[in-house]
Amino acid sequence: MKDKKLIVLYLAMIVVGLALLFTKSAPPPVEQKEERIVAEPPKKEEPKTEIINVAVAKHDINKKTILTKDDYYFKSIEVAINKERPKFITETAGIDAYVVKNNIAKDTVIEESLIASPNSEDYILLALKEGNFMFPFAIDPIDSYLMKNLKSGDLIDLYLFYGDETERNDRESKLVSPSRDFAKNRLKPIIVGKKVLYFDVGEEDLDKGYNKNKTAQVQLELSNQEIKVLRSLMTNSTIIMYPSTFKKNVENGLRLLSDKEKNWPLSEKDIFSGTRINTLKGN
């Protein structure tokens, strides 16, 4: 009897176990999070070229030419980025009064290596024409306006400031510079159309105060003959410098001008003879 009870108990346990096995609930499904794939924006390709404005020769430019705005123009060109390239002129006022080192053909892009800046050693050597010399001309304080209005490559004219006087005990008239009588003072052009190489004193020095203790100078390009005449006159006469009335450099600046200068009356007496203009008459 006891064994039967045990068998029934075992059977009941088996039935309960099977029932529990089939009735056990399945585990809740695990929620899978959706991974959002963020697409990276396409990388912008950096431009490999850029557009710049450069100076270009308007016409064939000869060596030793001092540049003006009539010699070049600006145009846009496309150049490579991050690559070694020539140093172009990109500023509109970058090359005025510069001198050309070598011949430049028309429509050629002007590079820094082809020109020399004023006051540079190359400029001084190139700007001088063969046979000419640099001559320093002192600028009086009252004439400092020239330094603020003229630049390298501009032209100037040199005048003799003189008068025709007759002393009481001397019947002959004499030329003196300047005359003691203002009404008798005259201007006579002696050297015209000469090129300014450079000024020795810059704008910064002028702003600090320009006085007689600080002598400013302009370096002129003169021939040997012109220097002889000018240096001789400077020993006992007054020479005045004015901006030139000429548009181009005058090779022989000693030739006397015709009576076009009417700002001051000109004496009928020549300072130089007609055949040997480098000889003073002395009358």
Automatic annotation (TrEMBL):
InterPro entries: SAF. It comes from the Bacteria. It comes from Gilliamella apicola. Pfam families: SAF. Gene3D superfamilies: Antifreeze-like/N-acetylneuraminic acid synthase C-terminal domain. Residues 53-113 form the SAF domain. This is SAF domain-containing protein. CDD domains: SAF_CpaB_FlgA_like.
